[in-house]
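INTERNAL AUDIT FORM
Audit reference: QA-55
Scope: verify that the stored structure record matches its stored sequence.
Auditor: D.O.
Record contents follow.
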Amino acid sequence: EDSKLLHAANIMAQYIDNNEDGKADNMTLLTALTANNAALFIWKSESQINLNVQDLGADESIISWHTNGQTGQFDAAIEEVWHVITHTGYANAYPTIFGVNAGTALTNAMDIARGGNFTTIPNPYPADAWYTYDDQTCEYDCMVAEYIYWAMSSILGAQKNRLSEISQEWDLNTNTLIQNTDTAIYSLLTDPQYMFPTVLPDGTYMH
C-alpha cells in the first residue's frame, strides 16, 4: 500500500533530517548512504524477498503504533530503516568508529554489553551481560546492527513500554538505563559530531 511505502520513506527522512529543516543533518552520512547504494525493499509477501538488501514487510509496518501511545504491535519500520542507515551509512562514513568488524568503537562497546568478544552465541551469556541476542543465524556483523538499533531506539524512547517483549535480547530499554549502564554506547550515540537523531521518527515528515 502507498501508505506503508510513504511511512517507511518518511521514517528514513526523519532519521536523516531529524530536525526536519529539509536538509540532511550529517552530509558525511548522506554521502556514505548514496555512494553505497543504500536501499530498503518493502514486500507484501515473503515470497517476494529476492534482493540482497534490507527488507521490511508491509504487515510489519504499523503506522498506528505511533498514535496509540506506543502500544500494540511494534512498528518494525523503526528498526529496519535504522539498519539501512547504520549498516550502509554510519559503518562506511566512520569505519573505525561504527564499522562492524571487531576493534571499532562500536564493536568494543558491544563486546562489553555482551560480556565478552563472541563470534558465536555463548550458552549462556555471562550473567552481567545486558545484550543477549541469541539468534544462531545472526553473525558478528548482524549482532552489531542489532546492538546499535537497541541502543539508539532505547535512547529515543521507542522501547520504554516493551521490556517484557525484548528482555530476552536487551535489558536497557530506556535512555536513563543506557546512560547509567552502557556508558560506551551512550557517549557514542550522543556525541554531537556524529549528529545522531534525538527525536524518534513517527512517519510524519513534512518536507
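Auditor finding: record pair retrieved intact. The mean pLDDT is 92.
Action required: none
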